[in-house]
Amino acid sequence: MEHFMIAFLGLCVQNLIKSIRYIFQVRFSSILSQAASISYDSLPISLIIAFIAAAVIAIQVSKQFLMSGAEAYIGGTIAVVMIREIAPGFVALAIGARAGTAISAEIANMQVTSQVDAMKTLKVDPVGYYFTPRIIAAAVTVPMVVLLAEFVGIVGGMFVSQATINLHPARYMTSAWLWISTRDIYISLLKASIFGALIALVCATQGYETKGGAKEVGVSTTQAAIISTVYMLVADFLINLVFYIIK
After folding, report:
1. Nearest Cα to 107, choosing from 92, 129, 138?
2. End-to-end CA distance of the chain, in Å?
3. How far, in Å, are 80, 88, 93, 222 from residue 108 at the CA level?
4. Position 124 confidence tier, pLDDT thresholds 50, 70, 90
5. At a CB cut-off of 8 Å and minimum separation 6, what does 102 contact?
6. Do 199 and 232 touch, CB atoms closer than 8 A?
7. What is the average pLDDT across 18-46?
8. Which of 110, 105, 136 is nearest to 33 (CA)?
C-alpha cells in the first residue's frame, strides 16, 4: 500500500508539472464551468456541515465552560477551532466526496471509452485539457467556500450557545472577535487552496490512470475518494506543523 501511495504521488507530481505548462493557455470559460461544478454546487452541503459541526462543538463545550465560569471564552474557542481546522478540513472533505469523485468518474469514463486516445490523436494534451482548468478552479474557489463556512459556523455557534446556556450574542461575538487573528484566516485560506488543488489533481490523476471498463470506473471513483482524503489529511498535518508549531 505504501509503495502504491508513493508511486501515485509521483504520477500526481508529473501531471501537476504538465498542467502548469498550460496555465496561461486554458480558456476562462472552462475554468468558470469547473468552478461552478466543483465549488458552487458543493456550497449547500459545505455550509450545512460547517453549521452542524459548530453546533455540536457549542453543545459540547458550553456547559463545561459555564460550570467553570469561562462562558465568555466560548465564542473565541469556537471561532479559532472553526477557522484553523474545522471549516477548511470539513469543506475539503465534502468537496472531495462530491466534486472529486465526479471528476474521477468523468475522466475515467473518457479514458475507458477511448475519448482520451482520440484527443491524443488530434495532438491535444489530455492533461492540459482536463487537469489545468479543474486545478485552477478548485484552488481559487474552495477558499471562498471555506470563508463562507467559517462565517456560518461562527454564527451557528452563537445561536446554539444562546439556546443552550442563554449566552448573550454580544459576549459571544466579543470573545470571537478578540480571539480571531488575521494570520489564522490567511492560513485557513491557504489550506483551502492547497486542499482544493490537491483534490482536483488526485481525483483527475486517478481517473486518468483508469484502464478497463465500467466496473473499473466505479472502483477508480472509490479509490479517488480514499486517496484524496489521505493526501489531504497528510497535507493538513504538514501545514499545521509548519505554521503553528514551527513559528
Report:
1. 129
2. 34
3. 39, 27, 21, 12
4. confident
5. 37
6. yes
7. 88
8. 136
**Structure confidence by residue, pLDDT tens digits, 74-119:** 888 899 999 988 999 999 999 988 888 888 988 888 888 878 778 8
Amino acid at 198: L
**Cβ contact 116:41 at 8 Å:** no
Note the pTM of the prediction, 2 decimals: 0.89
Q: Which residue has 481517473 as its cell numbers? A: 207
pLDDT tens track for 222-231:
888 898 999 9
Give 155-178 pLDDT, tens digit per residue: 999 999 888 888 888 888 988 898
- Alpha carbon 67 to chain centroid, angstroms: 36
- Placement of cell 461552478 in the chain: 36
Query: With helix as H, strand as E and coil as C, how does the chain read?
Result: CHHHHHHHHHHHHHHHHHHHHCCCCCCHHHHHHHHHHHHHCCHHHHHHHHHHHHHHHHHHHHHHHHHCCCHHHHHHHHHHHHHHHHHHHHHHHHHHHHHHHHHHHHHHHHHHCCHHHHHHHCCCCHHHHHHHHHHHHHHHHHHHHHHHHHHHHHHHHHHHHHHHHCCCHHHHHHHHHHHCCHHHHHHHHHHHHHHHHHHHHHHHHHHHCCCCCHHHHHHHHHHHHHHHHHHHHHHHHHHHHHHHHCC
Chain mean position to CA 239: 14
Residue 185 burial by Cβ neighbours in a 10 Å radius (0-12, 13-18, 19+): middle
Q: C-alpha dihedral over 195, 196, 199, 201, to 10 degrees?
A: -110
Q: Which of 148, 198, 170 is nearest to 47 (CA)?
A: 148
